[in-house]
Structures are given as C-alpha cells and as structure tokens.
Automatic annotation (TrEMBL):
Belongs to the polypeptide deformylase family. It comes from Microlunatus kandeliicorticis. One of its GO terms (biological process) is translation. Binds 1 Fe(2+) ion. The gene is def. Fe cation binds at residues 89, 131, 135. This is Peptide deformylase. Keywords: Hydrolase, Iron, Metal-binding, Protein biosynthesis. CDD domains: Pep_deformylase (cd00487). GO terms for molecular function: metal ion binding; peptide deformylase activity. Its EC number is 3.5.1.88. It catalyses: N-terminal N-formyl-L-methionyl-[peptide] + H2O = N-terminal L-methionyl-[peptide] + formate. The lineage of its organism: Bacteria, Bacillati, Actinomycetota, Actinomycetes, Propionibacteriales. Removes the formyl group from the N-terminal Met of newly synthesized proteins. Requires at least a dipeptide for an efficient rate of reaction. N-terminal L-methionine is a prerequisite for activity but the enzyme has broad specificity at other positions.
Amino acid sequence: MTIRRIRLFGDPVLRERAAPVVDFDAELRALVTDLVDTMVDADGGGIAAPQIGVGLRVFTYRLGDEIGHVVNPTVEFVGDEEQLAEEGCLSIPGLPFDCRRHLQVVTTGFTMDGEPLRLDGNGRLSQIIQHETDHLDGILFVDRLDPATRRAAEEAIRAAEWSGGVVPEIRVSPHAPLRPGGLHPGR
C-alpha cells in the first residue's frame, strides 16, 4: 500500500495537460494501485494522476463499493440534461461548492492492462468522471463555477489553513460552459 502526497490548489502540476499513456506496463499498474490507495485513504470519490504529481492521463474512481480506473479517457456527453450538485476536490480540501455538470456521459478508454473500456456514467458517477477528466486537462472544478460562487470559492480558499492565505488565479474553463436551461451557448 502506497499513499502518495496529494498536490493542493496552487501547485502548477494541476494546471498542466497530462500526456497520454503509451506503455501499459508494471509502472502503470503501480501508478493505478497508488491512485486507488491514495483515493481510499483520503476518502475521495476519485483522483487523477496529476493530483499526485504524475502527468499521465489516468484516473481512479469510487462509487459506493465500486472502485475502478480509466486510462486515456475520452468523454462523450449524452443528451442535454444537467445536474447542479455539491462537488469537492482532494486538491481543494474541505471546500465543496455547487457545480453544474452533464447528467450522463459515456467514457471510453483502457484498463491498466491495455484492454478497451467503456463506462456509462449517470448522476454522481457522471460528475466524478467529468471532474477527474477535467484534472487531466489542467482544469479544476472551481473553474466551472458561476461567477458569484467562484468569488465565494476564492474567499474560502484564501481563508483555508492549507492555502497560507494566497489564492492563485481561478480561471474560467476553456470548455463551453453549461448554463441554466440545459443547453450550451450556441446550440
């Protein structure tokens, strides 16, 4: 069992796009094991490799007793239904905020052994998949918050004991934002 240090908001690795996995080897299997061990130890619903300082496109998830992982994920949104639900992050500990996400997604990728994988996510699993895939693109959930909630998040992060009173820039997600009513702008 290897518990890795979780990188906190402000660490530059969290803002970098992770590289695709090309070698499905013992090193990748060890990384997936470390991610699972770290996620479970921190009582998280998911964790992405950049959160432990590894710039590869891998994440693990936990929903109830189900624990899984996806290597090189791609996400497809199913329909236009959305959910607004409380979301937190192991890299922004103790500060959950309501975040708008798609209700359903289909994720394809690979297992740590290189086998093709398809994961249908609905509700909470959809939220976890989107959150962790965002991490692989250098996006944090606070980037997806509406402006008023984003300001509240900045204040809460600044006040958090772990932040040292400094709030690095929270930026707006480069992906098309969701808006109330269920459609992306321009659709």
